[in-house]
């Protein structure tokens, strides 16, 4: 008897399923085989139990591969972090071992920071004990019976900090928040003023133009005023050639210009090199002289005052000042002098010419200063120079431009500017009573009624300090000097004849808000109050003060240099780190402490010296009286001197990166506070304290800027 059709179909189906199960036990070797098996699964009907078993095995394999991939990523990240930590520890150990010991006395601020660090560590230890005993979740109270003496002490501490310490800290916090908001509003107003200038296309207008004279066969020399160019320098071995060369190739009649090289160097080798450079340009027909003071008092101000006392200075009407690392373009004088002088023509006569038009220069007689913008040849050299460029771009693009346009006053930057000599004499000349002689003379000229103009489209190249040591010393001088000046000239401002609004601007905006309040609240709020609020949680510092408003202000600061937006977070953290230096300088200048009168010349590296020298030789004007062969030999000898100097620098005493104790102590304070914040699950505060502490640690170990050891 034949089998029923259903029975035959069942036997065939069982054979097919057994074959698929055997094939499925081995993983597919190729992607094509995988697709074939998937297509079979889709097309062939399967029993629910077999399909579930097959899906279970496939899911197990997929999960295994996913876990292996995640494990590989974790291992790679762990190895990267471990390598970075090991490198950091090795660098720290090396710099701690090679750091000079006991070469400087501890400052008062450092002793206070050390005391604060000891207090932070002690409070963290107490909080850790309380955390592991569970007192964070159910705080003990003095009203209930307490048998444990440690628990009683902790309960007493909770009452003292809640009733006495937290209210005081909260009041100080509120004061700093108000100052912070006022300063933030000032930043917003400056940015809006800059936007208004940009949108309206506002800029100073010169009534005359000297550029057309190049196309003429001859120049009317009487149209060109007498200009004195001063280059003060002190031991500027690396950059003296580029500044002298840039000044000597100015496109200005040689008979109407004199270059003064004011050398205060105490190194005889540097003096001889500068003398040789001056003699080379004298042989080329340039009016240039070399001056060296025997009595070097008053630093840069004394140097400039001595140069202005020369008898021949009375023959000159304007003076352009360039520091040793500045490289003005050949058109610098042609782009700045026209704002002083407006040539007009009047009908006159004399015994030689009965009737003719005589050129008379009439101009803005109340204009004392034309300041130009700084450009930087090494702004992309390292992270430190990038962060400096953000600050200085905002200073020139926003602060100087807005103040120059709306109130015709700003702080003279000490270089890359042209002064009317009559204005310098009218306000008393250069004084060495502070370390900011440029700001001093600008304030006195403003009180005498003189006006300033800022040219944002005229740029003068210079060099940024590439090491943190040089930058820190520069910032200390720049922030202690204004407080010295404020203390000395406060009553002069009050009793001056300028308008009431100008007095308010000088006292409250120029000095107090931007020179005193800014470093005060930056250091106090983010380096002292924020860590304390972690140990005194009854005092609150809102998250918008810690994160949102500083972030918005940082965005405003970075707007003039939009290419620096990737560095906005390092910029915010680094500015808070620099607050300790600025605060220390501000206090020392305000209370006449010893370090406030410390003047140290900012170290330059002269990275562009050779290229600038070549460009100067190529752009030497045709009015030079020597042959091209002599020029080539002079430039070659200059390059040879540069090469010798480079070899001398390399064979000299080896520099080392330093350790900065205040920054390291503050790093430990912030990291200690971050641990306490983590125990309280405060997200934004924890991350800010953690990253700010790491930034302080990197700066304290001198890991930012030039690495020389």
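^ Assign residues to that structure.
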């Amino acid at each position: 008897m034949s089998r029923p059709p259903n029975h035959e179909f069942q036997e065939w189906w069982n054979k097919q399923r057994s074959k698929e199960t055997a094939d499925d036990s081995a993983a597919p070797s190729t992607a094509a085989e995988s697709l074939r098996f998937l297509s079979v699964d889709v097309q062939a009907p399967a029993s629910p139990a077999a399909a579930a078993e097959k899906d279970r095995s496939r899911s197990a394999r997929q999960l295994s591969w996913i876990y292996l991939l995640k494990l590989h990523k974790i291992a790679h990240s762990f190895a990267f972090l471990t390598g970075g930590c090991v490198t950091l520890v090795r660098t720290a150990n090396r710099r701690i071992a090679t750091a000079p010991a006991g070469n400087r006395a501890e400052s008062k601020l450092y002793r206070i920071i050390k005391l604060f660090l000891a207090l932070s560590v002690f409070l963290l230890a107490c909080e850790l004990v309380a955390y592991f005993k569970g007192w964070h979740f159910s705080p003990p109270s003095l009203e209930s019976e307490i048998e444990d003496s440690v628990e009683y002490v902790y309960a007493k501490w909770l009452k003292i900090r809640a009733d006495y310490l937290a209210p005081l800290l909260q009041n100080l916090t509120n004061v700093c928040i108000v100052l912070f908001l006022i300063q933030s509003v000032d930043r917003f107003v400056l940015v809006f003023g800059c936007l208004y200038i940009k949108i309206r296309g506002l800029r100073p207008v010169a009534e005359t133009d000297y550029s057309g004279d190049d196309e003429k066969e001859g120049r009317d020399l009487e149209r060109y005023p007498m200009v004195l160019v001063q280059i003060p320098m002190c031991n500027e071995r690396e950059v003296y050639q580029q500044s002298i060369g840039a000044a000597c190739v100015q496109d200005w009649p040689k008979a109407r210009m004199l270059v003064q090289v004011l050398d205060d160097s105490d190194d005889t080798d540097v003096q001889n090199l500068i003398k040789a450079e001056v003699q080379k340009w004298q042989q080329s027909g340039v009016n240039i002289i070399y001056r060296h003071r025997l009595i070097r008092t008053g630093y840069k101000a004394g140097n400039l005052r001595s140069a202005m006392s020369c008898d021949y200075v009375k023959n000159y009407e304007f003076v352009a000042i360039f520091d040793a690392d500045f490289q003005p373009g050949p058109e610098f004088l042609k782009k700045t002098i026209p704002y002083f002088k407006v040539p007009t023509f009047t009908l006159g006569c004399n015994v030689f010419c009965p009737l003719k038009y005589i050129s008379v220069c009439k101009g803005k007689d109340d204009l004392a200063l034309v300041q130009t913008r700084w450009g930087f040849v090494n702004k992309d050299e390292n992270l430190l120079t990038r962060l400096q460029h953000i600050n200085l771009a905002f200073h020139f693009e926003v602060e100087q431009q807005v103040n120059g346009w709306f109130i015709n006053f700003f702080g003279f930057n000490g270089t890359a500017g042209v002064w009317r000599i009559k204005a310098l004499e009218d306000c008393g000349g250069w004084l060495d009573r502070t370390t900011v002689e440029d700001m001093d003379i600008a304030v006195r000229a403003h009180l005498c009624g003189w006006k300033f103009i800022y040219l944002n489209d005229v740029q003068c190249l210079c060099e940024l300090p590439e090491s943190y040591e040089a930058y820190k010393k520069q910032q200390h001088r720049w922030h202690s000097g204004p407080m010295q000046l404020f203390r000395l000239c406060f009553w002069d401002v009050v009793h001056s004849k300028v308008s009431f609004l100008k007095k308010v601007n000088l006292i409250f905006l120029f000095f107090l808000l931007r020179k005193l309040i800014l470093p005060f609240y930056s250091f106090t709020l983010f380096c002292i109050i924020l860590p304390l609020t972690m140990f005194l949680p009854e005092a609150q510092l809102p998250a918008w003060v810690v994160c949102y408003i500083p972030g918005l202000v940082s965005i405003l600061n970075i707007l003039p240099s939009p290419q620096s937006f990737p560095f906005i977070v390092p910029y915010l953290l680094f500015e808070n780190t620099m607050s300790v230096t600025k605060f220390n300088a501000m206090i020392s200048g305000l209370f006449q402490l010893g370090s406030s009168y410390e003047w140290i010349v900012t170290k330059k590296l002269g990275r562009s010296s050779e290229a600038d020298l070549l460009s100067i030789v190529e752009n030497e004007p045709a009015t030079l009286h020597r042959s091209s062969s002599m020029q080539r030999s002079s430039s070659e000898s200059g390059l040879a001197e540069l090469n010798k100097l480079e070899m001398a620098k390399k064979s000299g005493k080896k520099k080392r990166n330093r350790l900065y104790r205040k920054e390291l102590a503050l790093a430990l304070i912030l990291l200690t506070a971050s641990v306490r914040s983590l125990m309280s699950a405060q997200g934004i505060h924890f991350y800010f304290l953690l990253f700010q502490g790491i930034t302080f640690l990197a700066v304290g170990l001198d890991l930012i800027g030039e690495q020389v050891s």
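The radius of gyration is 36 Å.
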